[in-house]
Every structure is written in C-alpha cells, then in structure tokens.
Amino acid sequence: MQISVNATPSYGTEVTLQELIALRNLALHQPSAGNHKKLTLPGLKLTNIRGRGIEFDATREYQAGDDIRSMAWRVTARSLKPHIKVYREEKERPVWLAIDLSPSLYFGTRCMFKSVKSIMQATLTGWLSLEKRERIGALISKEEKPLIFLPQTGEKYYLTILHALANASRSYPDFTNTNHLRGLLLALQQQVRTGNITYIYSDFFHFDTDIEKLILHLAQRTQVILNFCYDPFEATPPPPYQYILTNGQQNLLFNMQDAKNREDYRQLFQLKVSQLQNFARKHQITLRTYCTDPEREIAI
C-alpha cells in the first residue's frame, strides 16, 4: 500500500506522539480502510501479493503426486527417505515497518525533515494495518543497533512503537562512517519470516551493491515495498548564487552560479532515482516516492 501524508507537523524537525496518534483519524476515515483491494487514499496503489501465503508446519514422507518444490532436503538427507514440507495457510501476514533514520534524513528545506516524513508515512501504514488486525513489528535504526519490536497485535503495543518513533525523531545522530541502512537490513534478515510484508523507509543515501544484495535476500521470502523520501532541495538546484555551507566547524563554497555545477547537481539526483527505479523494476520490487513538500513534488 502507498499512502501520501500531506499534513505538516507542528515543527517539521521532529514529530510528537500526539501527532502520530492523530494520523489514526486519516486511516479510520478511509471508506474502505479494511479492504485490501479498494483503498482510495490519493496516490494509493496496492501491489500483488508475493509468496505462497502459507507457513511451514511440519514434514512427512514423500508420497506419489507431491510437489517436489516442497522437498525437505535436509530431512531427506538425514533419514535417507524422501520427505516434503507440509504448510498451513497463514491467517494473517505480519507487517514490518523498517525506518531508516540515518543522519542524512535529519534534513529538510520545506515543511518537514525527511526523517519526519518517513516516520509519518510508516505510522499511517501501521494504522491501516492495525485496522485489518494484522500483527505489526518495527525496526528503527539507531547508531548502536536497531530497535526491534516483534510483530504483535493491539493498539497498546503499537503505541509503544509510536513512542519510540517520536523519541527517535529528536535524536539527531552524528555523521559517521556507520551505514545505518545496512544495519537495519541485516537486522531484518534475522527477524522477517516467509510471507511477511516489509516496508522500508529511507532516503537511500547509501545505496550500493551490498545494500542491493541485502534487499534482494529479503525479497526472496517476503514482500518488500521500498519507500524513497527526498527533499525538493535535493531534486532541484537552488537559485544561482555562491552559497557558504558550514557544519559549525568548516566552511565550504557552494557555487550555484556555474551552469555546469547546476546541471551536475540535477543529474546527481536523477542518477539516484534511476538506480532505485532500475533496481526495483529489474527485480519486481515495489518502489514508492515521497517528497517532504507535496506541492514541490516532481514527476519521478
């Protein structure tokens, strides 16, 4: 599912628990919030379900006519008799909200930080999932290791996740060599199970072959939806001028009067978008995009 959150939080640089709770009203007032096929929120599009929709139950000896794709090879090797895996239908599909809060997401020039936009988008997805009585789990990236909330049902438990997200919006991590997204994906590898649904929210500042491999590994056993968040300043060069950038200790001249610099700036963003689009298209993974300022969103 894709949901577009256009409401501007109180400050934009952080989000409160009360604001995240208020997003429930947006989910509740959808005419078909409990229907997987007819969600009508602007920009909403549901993907086809991947996977078998079943989970492992037990093994038994192979019988004529059994599907060989279900062979339990390890049990077969140990017993020297062919065995197959027996599955049972899943009555629910646990939903994972994986929110990358790398330092690069604590940035925004219009309406809100990318971190706030990502948190709000993930929150609304969670509220809609809760209305369908789906179990909701979450991974929130931290500098040390991600916070992990195993999938559970119930509003009280979900409020615990929202409280952690509100706190995380105020953490402002330092820029280091730590790849938060990689740590988040590695933690997901250990937690998700076949048939789960995984929503990954990030600006994909670090998107290399290692990240691609981790996402592909997840996509082999779970439905993955990538949610790319960007700020209009990243997509479109600022007005021609010689800007001074500082991190509080060092200054850097940012010359946007030079036509070549402006074009390089524009192409750098397009390259990022193309990488994500080509990767998603090649591997049939859903990709959604969100701008911190919906009024300045560009066609991607």
What is the number of E strands?
10
Order of strands across the widest beta sheet? 5-4-3-6-7-10
Our measurement of the CA-to-CA distance between the termini, rounded to an integer number of angstroms, reads: 18 Å
Integer-rounded radius of gyration: 22 Å
Q: Count up the domains.
A: 2
Shape: globular
Question: For the report, how would you describe the main beta sheet?
Answer: 6 strands, mixed
> Count of helical segments?
8
By CATH reckoning, the class of the largest domain would read Alpha Beta
Secondary structure: helix percent: 25-40%
CATH topology descriptor of the largest domain: Rossmann fold
Task: Report on the architecture of this protein.
There is one protein chain. With 300 residues, the protein is an alpha/beta fold. It folds into two domains: 17-48 and 92-296, Rossmann fold (3-Layer(aba) Sandwich); 54-89, no CATH class. Helix content is 34%, strand content 20%. The protein contains eight helices and ten strands. The strands form three sheets. Strands 5-4-3-6-7-10 form a six-stranded mixed β-sheet, sandwiched between helices. The protein has a two-stranded antiparallel ribbon with strand order 1-2. It has a two-stranded antiparallel sheet with strand order 8-9. β6 (197-202), α6 (209-219) and β7 (223-230) form a beta-alpha-beta unit. α1 (17-28) packs across α3, α3 packs antiparallel against α4 (155-168) and α5 (180-191) packs parallel to α6 (209-219). The radius of gyration is 22 Å and the shape is globular. The two termini are 18 Å apart. Mean pLDDT is 84; it is low at 32-53.
